[in-house]
Amino acid sequence: MLKIKNVIDYLNNIAPFVLAEEWDNPGLNVGDENSQVKGICLDLDVTESTIKCAVENRANLIITHHPLIFNPLKKINKNEYPGNIIFLLIKNDISLIAMHTNADCATGGVNSVFAETIGLMHYQPLTDYGLGAIGEISSIKLNDFVSNLRCILKDKKIKFSGSPDKIISKVALTCGAGCDKELVDLAKDKKADAYITSEIKHNYLIENYDDKLSFIDIGHYTMEYPYMEKLKKLLETNFQNLNIKITGKNPFTE
Q: With the CA atoms of 68, 71, 77 and 83 taken in that order, what torsion angle do they form, in degrees rounded to the nearest 10?
């Protein structure tokens, strides 16, 4: 009988929880590790729609990228987030596992999958603790590279800074909201021509406007979703005859 703790052990094997940042909260957020697994739903975040899909598909385990609980809770109010989600999970006997910064830093994890998705060659982690990626592409104009990304990722909203005719051949990236000084400085130090991440702040664009580093802003969901597709395939291979579905959609409306 497959139990939730067996799934946790497998996830810990492919993306060890010890890799997670200290502030993070991966692993079992809600539920009973001794429960039998009847089906699994995958999503970047758990929402009421995720739970509805799980119920409809008779799944009693949801695996997300982002944890539901980060800080100690003083109350669980079913009319306020995240209490409403916790209430629904418990009411429907659904367990929740998060795979966050441990999956970001793991070999073959979130950043590795995105690097492969966009065709980054000879890539290595951007940081010494496994976060991000930096690698090479065939020399191309920045504008053409961004056009290729829009096509590959099926996202027309991708933005960039810098001269459209700038030739780039070395690219750094961090999936999710990775625009902080440490990561930007690393991208510069390692001679990246462009840095890809999400939710780039205006001050970083201005501070680096005349610099050699160009920024490419891709939505948080768009950058992290490819990993959920890979995780689905891994789970299907390891746990055969188990119903596994990807739920959810980009929170930004077209």
A: 0
8 Å CB contact between 65 and 110: yes
Bridge-based pairing of strands 133-141 and 159-160 is unpaired
Closest CA to 166 of 214, 207, 205: 214
100-113 confidence digits (pLDDT tens): 999 999 999 999 99
In a 13 Å sphere around the CA of 66, the CA atoms on its Cβ side amount to: 15
Do the beta carbons of residue 199 and residue 177 sit within 8 Å?
A: yes
> What is the model's pTM?
0.95
Task: Tell me the C-alpha distance between 250 and 204, whole Å.
Answer: 25
CA-angle at 15, arms to 237 and 99, nearest 5°: 95
CA dihedral 113→118→120→124, nearest 10 degrees, is -30
Distance CA(96)–CA(67), nearest Å, equals: 9
